[in-house]
Design a protein that fits this description.
Blueprint: H1 3-19, E1 21-26, E2 32-47, E3 53-63, H2 65-72, E4 83-86, E5 89-93, E6 102-104, E7 112-121
Length: 123
């Protein structure tokens, strides 16, 4: 891994510290904690049956793995069905565009990118 890749990973981790917001993260088992995550998006384009392009968007959340595991335990990882609440909206974690629910967002694995879908207003 080159110096440019490492710098990119450091820049991304710093962005979470600077742009990160406090969100409520609820595990499928009901455990809820406050974590710092930076909102983002991923677009995925595909060709439909008529040859047209269909673009779908995931509401993503960038989080430092050490922040996540500090709240939920060393072996904890995001799983499908976990929920994030932010500014009165609820986002359900789910796979997106052929990717799993979460993945490393940089080569140094300093960040996780969690894919989610806005499922509506908080009750």
């Amino acid at each position: 891994m080159g110096i440019i890749d490492r710098a990119s990973g450091l820049r991304a981790a710093t962005a979470v510290r600077l742009r990160g917001v406090s969100v409520s993260y609820r595990r499928k088992d009901g455990t809820t904690e406050s974590v710092v995550a930076a909102p983002g998006r991923t677009d995925h384009a595909d060709v439909d049956g008529n040859g047209g392009t269909v673009t779908v968007r995931s509401d993503d959340w960038l989080i430092r793995p050490e922040d996540f595991t500090a709240q939920f335990g060393a072996a904890a990882v995001p799983v499908e069905g976990d929920r994030i609440t932010f500014r009165g909206r609820v986002y359900r974690l789910q796979p997106f565009g052929g990717e799993p629910v979460y993945r490393p967002s940089d080569q140094d694995r300093r960040l996780w990118r969690m894919h989610s879908k806005d499922i509506g207003a908080e009750e």
